[in-house]
Automatic annotation (TrEMBL):
<feature type="transmembrane region" description="Helical">
    <location>
        <begin position="12"/>
        <end position="44"/>
    </location>
</feature>
<comment type="similarity">
    <text>In the C-terminal section; belongs to the peptidase M41 family.</text>
</comment>
<dbReference type="InterPro" id="IPR003959">
    <property type="entry name" value="ATPase_AAA_core"/>
</dbReference>
<dbReference type="GO" id="GO:0004222">
    <property type="term" value="F:metalloendopeptidase activity"/>
</dbReference>
<keyword id="KW-0175">Coiled coil</keyword>
<dbReference type="GO" id="GO:0006508">
    <property type="term" value="P:proteolysis"/>
</dbReference>
<dbReference type="Pfam" id="PF00004">
    <property type="entry name" value="AAA"/>
</dbReference>
<feature type="domain" description="AAA+ ATPase">
    <location>
        <begin position="104"/>
        <end position="248"/>
    </location>
</feature>
<dbReference type="InterPro" id="IPR041569">
    <property type="entry name" value="AAA_lid_3"/>
</dbReference>
<keyword id="KW-0378">Hydrolase</keyword>
<dbReference type="InterPro" id="IPR003593">
    <property type="entry name" value="AAA+_ATPase"/>
</dbReference>
<keyword id="KW-0482">Metalloprotease</keyword>
<keyword id="KW-0067">ATP-binding</keyword>
<dbReference type="GO" id="GO:0005524">
    <property type="term" value="F:ATP binding"/>
</dbReference>
<protein>
    <submittedName>
        <fullName>AAA family ATPase</fullName>
    </submittedName>
</protein>
<dbReference type="Pfam" id="PF17862">
    <property type="entry name" value="AAA_lid_3"/>
</dbReference>
<keyword id="KW-0547">Nucleotide-binding</keyword>
Length: 501
């Protein structure tokens, strides 16, 4: 029908213009306005539109992703899952809730680093509550045109209600990833478009009532909670906050167990060892480790994934792919001394901690040492941080001992060292005592920083100077093999200690 009107319009407009020109009316301005109007209409429509049917094919099909995921398919995160399920019971036991006069739960905010399973949680929540699942992301509401984002929010809620009715479901879960994009603090200034979008979201949330059918729950994810406007976080809106943190060792093992299910592992492969070596990895990185390991096995035409495939996959995820950068021999030698510097300090201050020393370039690094964290740490003593700084300074110290000067290769190490010194200062572990940065001058901070780093650099050089034989022996192996395993390295250190005893 609309097509018919369009065709009549296309025929009618030129006839009208010819008639007006014929009777002496100047049609040029009219023509100009018409062209402008039509191009504006098509431009807005192609960007998602402002009408009821807005949403665009792509977005709609993304929203329609069916959700069959259960909480069992999310590894670790036991506390977050428990808190979320408790909150979701509000949606399920709505009769009881209504009887007691409890206001409905409207919004749940999931916070945590990227790749920790926030999206998975929202999908599992939809499954658990037998709800329609709609997903979108904050960035999808961002438009140049004022009002488009707000209209998309309206459409989203409307579509959730329509779909729930169509599919015979009593509730709908709307998941908004990266909510900070639209939910940042309103300044009433330049970002009027964001403000309008956020206002619309708040209005829609205020319009959710307990006895409405279908019941709507909004789940949102962010890794920058402090950026959010307080209006979003106040009671009655996103008043349930659930932290979805990086997994601990047990969590990592259960994530690996989930993702290994469709992958053949060779006998003797220890996922527990992988969980131990992947401190600080997110669920998404762990999934990637298993995937990359399978790709390495395929490259070697192996039917099963072996432990060394997994070890290479950890390096790949941590540092990036091996590069073909062919360094000059002098440069490679310097890298070898630099990495051995890190490794020797690490092994002496924390025996058993070096997993592997490598001098083949990977990602941006020319060489690297993989460490074995003893166990997950959340609390650090002054001694521990100082040792950590010495490990970071070990590379530059070795270059100074063997070449008399440093290179640009220590830049990252120094950044790490500086951030650890900052941590020490902020935690009251330095001679500045318990302090706030406002209380001390920049000069005082610089002086303290230099004193700490100079003293630790001195200790590191002294320590390394006593290990010249270890350097000599491991240097030859490293230059020949490019890789030195933790065990071989430890044997070299032990034999040197026995020799010098
Ligand atoms: P972002 O903040 O970047 O959107 P996210 O926290 O929403 O990330 P997800 O999209 O849920 O992360 O996770 C990405 C992928 O990582 C998942 O598809 C899954 O393969 C894997 N993953 C992450 N966490 C877990 C987990 N706890 N259990 C199993 N798999 C996980």
């Amino acid at each position: 029908m609309s097509k018919l009107y369009k065709e009549i319009g296309i025929g009618f407009v030129p006839v009208l213009l010819i008639f007006l020109a014929f009777v002496g009316v100047n049609v040029v301005p009219l023509l100009f306005i018409a062209i402008l109007g039509v191009s504006l209409f098509y431009m807005i429509r192609s960007r998602g539109g402002v009408g009821v049917s807005a949403g665009g094919g792509d977005r709609k099909s993304k929203n329609r992703t069916p959700s069959y995921l259960t909480f069992d398919e999310i590894g670790g995160q036991d506390r977050a899952k428990r808190e979320l399920m408790e909150a979701l019971d509000f949606l399920i036991k709505h009769d009881q809730i209504q009887k007691l006069g409890i206001r409905p739960l409207k919004g749940i905010l999931l916070t945590g680093p990227p790749g920790t399973g926030k999206t998975l949680m929202a999908k599992a929540a939809a499954h658990y509550t037998n709800s329609v699942y709609m997903a979108t992301s904050g960035s999808e509401f961002v438009e140049m045109y004022v009002g488009v984002g707000a209209s998309r929010v309206r459409d989203l809620f409307k579509e959730a209600r329509t779909r729930a009715a169509k599919e015979g479901k009593e509730s709908a879960i709307i998941f908004i990833d990266e909510i900070d994009v639209i939910g940042g603090k309103r300044d009433g200034g330049q970002h009027r478009e964001y403000d309008q979008t956020l206002n619309q979201l708040l209005t829609e949330m205020d319009g959710i009532h307990t006895n409405d059918a279908p019941r709507i729950l909004i789940m949102a994810a962010t890794n920058r909670k402090e950026m959010l406007d307080s209006a979003l976080l106040r009671p009655g809106r996103f008043d349930r906050h659930i932290d979805v943190d990086l997994p601990d060792k047990k969590g990592r093992l259960s994530i690996l167990d989930i993702h290994v299910k469709n992958k053949p592992l060779a006998e003797g492969v220890s996922l527990e060892a992988i969980a131990e070596q992947t401190f600080g990895f997110s669920g998404a990185q762990l999934e990637s480790v298993l995937n990359e390991a399978a790709i390495y096995a395929l490259r070697e035409e192996k039917a099963e994934i072996e432990q060394h495939h997994l070890a290479s996959a950890i390096d790949k995820v941590m540092m990036g792919e091996r590069t073909d950068k062919e360094a000059a021999i002098e440069e490679k030698e310097r890298v070898a001394y630099h990495e051995l510097g890190h490794a020797i300090v690490a092994e002496i201050v924390r025996p058993g901690s070096v997993q592997q020393v490598t001098v083949s370039p990977r990602g941006k690094a020319l060489g690297y040492v993989r460490h074995n964290p003893p166990q997950d740490h959340y609390l650090y003593t002054k001694d521990y941080i100082e040792q950590q700084i010495m490990i970071a300074l070990g590379g530059a110290a070795a270059e100074e001992i063997f070449y008399g000067g440093r290179s640009t290769g220590s830049r990252n190490d120094f950044e790490q060292a500086l951030s650890m010194v900052r941590n020490m200062m902020d935690s009251g572990l330095t001679s500045l005592g318990i302090m706030d940065r406002e209380m001390v001058t920049k000069e005082q901070l610089m002086k303290e920083n230099a004193a700490i780093l100079d003293a630790l650099m001195h200790r590191t050089k002294e320590l390394l100077d006593r290990q010249r034989t270890v350097f000599d022996h491991s240097f030859d192996i490293l230059m020949k093999e490019e890789v030195l395993s933790g065990e071989t390295f430890r044997k070299l250190i032990d034999s040197h200690i026995a020799e010098s005893a």
